[in-house]
Write a structure and sequence with these properties.
This protein is α+β, with helices and mostly antiparallel strands. The chain has six helices and 16 strands. It has one domain: 2,3-Dihydroxybiphenyl 1,2-Dioxygenase, domain 1 (Roll). Helices cover 20% and strands 40% of the residues. A hairpin with a 2-residue loop joins β3 and β4. It is globular.
């Protein structure tokens, strides 16, 4: 069942994020874009923090066809075809958990940290300058969901349709949708809207009329409040079988009871959770 399967998504986010700060020296990264506008509220990047880069590269490379470019001994860029889709950062090997961290665009990273702490959230990594990429901080919202805020040095990636094996969507899973929504409205200038998804009401956060992040009640109180990333795939069932064969875990196989069987919830061999969604292009 969905409730029992999702318990594994209550990952050691705080441990992973704090450990990142003690990882290898910060590399210089290429800009996300050059000369483009800022798009506050948009998820502009995803980083996987993991104790085993070689294992992560093998898993995601085989599963999604991603290729990797090492920037340093502790950080690699991931590409799907010619598109950058994220990065892999090495954790201290004493940590055995992995976590996907979304980076959300903000006009002022330092101010975002102030707003978060005043609202009852926490700062996990104080604002710092990432050479070539911009200014970043890692925070937790007042309900415990961890994510990063960033102001990209060269501008944010333009809005474009998701390709296969690329990031499609992001959600915040929380025990209090109303309070979480109010926080993200104040922090990121979102407006809460609602639409029907497969006949079920669905709340999402939009900025300037464009949907940016989903917001939903977590299906089990034992799951920690968390951000969850979705990757677009051609066949959710086939990806589920392949992920398991590569050493990943199936937390929820495609089932008609959940979004018409178009999604699966998976975890990589080190425990980083993500969702795959089948979507016809």
């Amino acid at each position: 069942m969905l409730v029992s399967s999702l318990r594994a998504l209550g990952l050691l986010a705080l441990a992973a994020l704090v450990a990142t700060g003690c990882a290898t020296p910060t590399p210089r990264l290429p800009p996300l874009e050059t000369g483009t506008a800022m798009l506050p509220g948009k998820v502009i990047w995803h980083d996987l923090v993991t104790p085993n880069m070689a294992q992560a590269k093998a898993f995601y490379g085989d599963l999604f066809g991603w290729t990797f470019e090492h920037v340093s001994s502790g950080y690699a860029l991931a590409r799907s075809g010619d598109r950058l889709v994220g990065g892999i950062a090495k954790l201290n090997a004493s940590w055995d958990a992995s976590y996907w961290i979304p980076l959300v665009s903000v006009p002022d990273v330092d101010q975002a940290v102030i707003v978060t702490t005043e609202a009852g959230g926490e700062t996990l990594l104080e604002p710092f300058d990432l050479p070539g990429r911009g200014r970043v901080a890692v925070i937790r919202d007042p309900h415990g969901a961890a994510f990063a805020v960033a102001r990209a040095a060269g501008g944010d990636p333009v809005d474009r349709p998701a390709a296969l094996n690329d990031w499609l969507w992001n959600e915040v899973w929380t025990d209090d949708v109303a309070r979480a929504g109010a926080f993200y409205e104040s922090l990121l200038g979102y407006r809460q809207l609602q639409r029907s998804v497969h006949g079920t009401p669905y709340v999402f956060l939009a900025r300037e009329g464009r949907p940016r992040v989903g917001l939903m009640k977590k299906p089990d109180p034992e799951i920690g409040n968390t951000w969850v990333g979705y990757l677009q795939v051609a066949d959710a069932s086939a990806i589920t079988v392949k992920a398991e064969s590569l050493g990943g875990k199936v937390l929820l196989a495609p089932t008609p009871d959940v979004r018409n069987g178009t999604i699966a919830i998976l975890a990589d061999p080190s425990g980083a959770g993500f969702v795959v969604q089948e979507r016809k292009l």
